[in-house]
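Sample entry (265 residues):
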Amino acid sequence: MATKTVPVKLDIRAEHLAAANKFRKEMTTQGTLVVRLMSSPGSGKTMLLEKTAQELGPSFKLGILVGDVETERDAQRLAPYAPTVQITTGGACHLEIPLVERAFKKLDNAQPHFLFIEDVGNLVCPASHDLGEHLRVVLLSTTEGDDKPAKYPKAFRTSDVVVITKSDLLPYVPFKVRNAETDALQVQSGLKIFTLSSYTGDGVSAWCEFLRRERHRLLMASGTEDADQEILKPARPVRAAEKAAIIRTKSSRSAISKKTKAGKS
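Predicted structure, serialized as tokens:
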């Protein structure tokens, strides 16, 4: 049987990257900071979003897009806190920009101050796809082991922030925060690292304060700073431990300015 080769000459990946850059530019123009969360299944993405929405919700307009292979359970959990759209992939192990664009159009709030995208639980495939985010955040739970940055380097190399979750379990699991931080920083020296517990709330305010300031940087860099100066005021006094976490994030340059000028490579 004869075979015939048909040249397609269509770079789908390039089209998706262009779409992601266009989406990021649109979000920048309207003052929306896009924050994407990646992690293994069960690392605490949804619970972190619950706590984040509870803290930021009273002062900011939020939108959430949440990805899973099946069910709408995460969207049901998050809907009481912010307008949420569930994206079910039907088997795909990651989200892609066309799914994000379609889901965003379904949000009740089309111009949120913060748009959170929770990717499908996976430390491999999502790292290769740009969803138009300003900040890419990878979560690592203490129950997973502290060797994940070394085992899954691309997820950490392409991220801007690492959040070590479930810190309340540190007394009960063989997880060394210093080991995880060392491996992560060897992969990507500019990473900002937070350690927190969504269950107890420890460290969540420092994380939210970081998000507030990153949005402010986005507005300043893009020249779209609005009149709402409340973004510079913490919702409550920051504890000493949380203040230390904030100070540590200041040591590396902001990821926002870099991505506002050019998309991720």
